[in-house]
Every structure is written in C-alpha cells, then in structure tokens.
Specification:
By secondary structure, the protein is mainly beta. Helices cover about 0% and strands about 55% of the residues.
C-alpha cells in the first residue's frame, strides 16, 4: 500500500507562486521508475493532468501551464514537487498527487489552490 500526502496549497494573488509537495509512504516502495504526476480538479472541467514525471527522465505539461509550472522529483524518489509561478485565477482548483506503481494507481487526498484576481 502507498499513501500520498500533498501539502503547500493555499491562497495567492494572481502573478504569485506556490510550491506543492507530495510525499509517498507506506509498505510499498516508490521507485524513480514509477511515473508520478500532478492533477487538478476544477468545477466544470473535471480532473486534468497538469504535469507528469514519466519516471524515465522525461516530463510533460498541460499546455495551459507550460513555461509556468515545473515538476520535479526530489532526491528521494518518493517525493514530488510542483513549482508553480505566474499563477492565474484559472489555476484555482484541488491539486492531486498521483503515482503509478507498476500498474497500480494511487492518489493523494488533494490540496486546495486558490488564486485571486
């Protein structure tokens, strides 16, 4: 079993920055090869993938956040960071951490990000 705990959400003004962290723990080890991602859920848009660390040295981003967000795997493979800059009101939502551990998906409980205009 894997537990994912996100932190770092909050309220920020447009143009500001936030850093989200996700720490995996539990009886099953997360390896660097396991893909990890950040998703966000916004009213009316459902859950969308924001940024992905493929676990194989590549990262991908949603078009809406390219150039503003950076996903990073900390030295501990079980820790995932999302650096968010130039935040806009449309970035408001609940951000979820996700890991695919050899075909088994795990989700965190989410952290709220609110960007005021």
């Amino acid at each position: 079993q894997v537990q994912l705990v996100e932190s770092g959400g909050g309220l920020v003004q447009a143009g500001g920055s936030l850093n989200l962290s996700c720490v995996a723990s539990g009886s099953s080890t997360i390896y660097r090869i396991n893909p990890m991602a950040w998703y966000r859920q916004t009213p009316g848009k459902g859950r969308e993938e924001v940024a992905l660390d493929t676990g194989r040295g590549a990262t991908t981003y949603a078009e809406s956040v390219k150039g503003r967000f950076t996903i990073s795997r900390a030295s501990a493979a079980s820790t995932l960071i999302l650096y968010m800059n130039s935040l806009q009101p449309e970035d408001t939502g609940v951000y979820y951490c996700y890991v695919d551990r050899f075909g088994t998906p795990y989700w965190g409980q989410g952290t709220q990000v609110t960007v005021s205009s």
